[in-house]
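Re: the request from the purification team.
They wanted to know what the chain is likely to look like in 3D before they choose a buffer screen. I agreed to run a prediction and write the result into the notebook, where they can find it.
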Amino acid sequence: MTEIDFAFGAPDRLRTACQVALKRVQAGQKLVVYCRDTNRLSQFDRLLWAFDDLAFVPHVAVDDPLASQTPVVLTSSDAETPHHEWLLNLDDSWPPIYTRFRRVIEIVSNDASEREAARARWRFYQECGHQIVKHDLATQDLP
């Protein structure tokens, strides 16, 4: 069954997502980033290039010919993805493709609307019987 990680207290959701992506890549793991909001996904894509002067996070869109060879794949659709290890959800709702993955990472900032959307996702996962691991980013490392 898919394991769910919630990381609470992110100062900036997208910047923290970049740090999570970098951590997964440095660990030699594959990551799919999901968000139906194509504007948010594009913003994340641009931020991956600029969030750290010394870091490089190789990433492509899911329909890119190099997607299967690239550690981080971005998608806004429910279509099949080349990787099934980690899913980073940047959407406001639970991702319909989440059961294909071993682990899901949910990042929650201190913004009230983001926290409310995260509570709904938490309840959904809990009702589906998933193990949820909570990370307080003020006191713990990134998942």
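For the purification team: The two ends are 18 Å apart (CA to CA).
Please add any questions underneath this entry.
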